[in-house]
Amino acid sequence: MSEQKLVSIIMPIYNAEEYLRVNLETIAAQTHTNLEVLLVDDGSTDQSAVIAQEFCEKDARFRYFIQKNQGAPAARNYGFRESHGQYALFVDSDDILKTNAIELLYLVAEKQDADLVIGQYDTIDEQGMPLETKKMQYEKDEIYEVDEHLDTLFLLSPMPGNKLYNAELLREKDLFFSDLKRAQDLNFYLKLLLYADKVCTLSDTTYLYRIRLNSISHTVSPVILETIRSVEDVEDFYRQNSRYDERLFKTLKFKYYADQLAKIPQIEDKKERKQTYDRLARELKAIKRESVLERFQSKKYSIVKTKLMFPLLFKSELYSWIQTAKLNRRDRINRRSHE
User: What is this structure's pTM?
Assistant: First the structure.
């Protein structure tokens, strides 16, 4: 058997003391052992630094860095610049990497000479208990030539934690995470697809994504409009590289802007709800049914267009309260079902 190539695991850390230790333990126990683990402390004020440094002291594969608080994209970029692996994987500090994840992803990457390998992910709650399985759009192992299947790959989840990247390709193309407050994962993933030749997907679960109700990514505010800036940046990137596909980008916008539209009732401030709705509604109204891919032209398109006919619903205090109560109730049910 040939010698294992080095895989770099980059982890931004910010006030994750409650979840960090179990995360690092699963990384230390990976069945693929040729690793370097770059822990980038993004200005934590809790005990995260103590936990991270403890692992560095007992395992030479772990390295600790600290930066002034700048957000996860900057921390990932810092870690990647310090990395040396032929492959890279970006893990969030509150999630969990399955102990055989790197081995599963790496073997496929080597066998298929893939620029990106994507595993399944499941969701867990704050206590680490499983929530409803969040399966991707595939049920079996697949090999995709990017030029032939860009429409499929374009709409997969951009989450980085379940993806093994060809690090040498990232360095060659100078690809880094953009300084966005939202949808930076989407931005990075789509730019990588522009340069990738082959992408493989696995039916095996490699990553456990933790749903935290009070986390930045699940706190709803007008910052969700950053999704528009992210998509438009990628759109310009594809135009500049002569790979722009209008229908694909119309579909992308419809998919992600509709997802953000559904979150608007959770914005507490009435004025901010109105401003966010007005911007998203303007974007969605400009997307015609025939301009998106066929699979988005039926039920979902009709539902979104129907919602846009009732703007006052999204702006009302009552509907906001109902939606928030509904989400809280669903969370309580999920918790009770796993007790």
Answer: 0.91
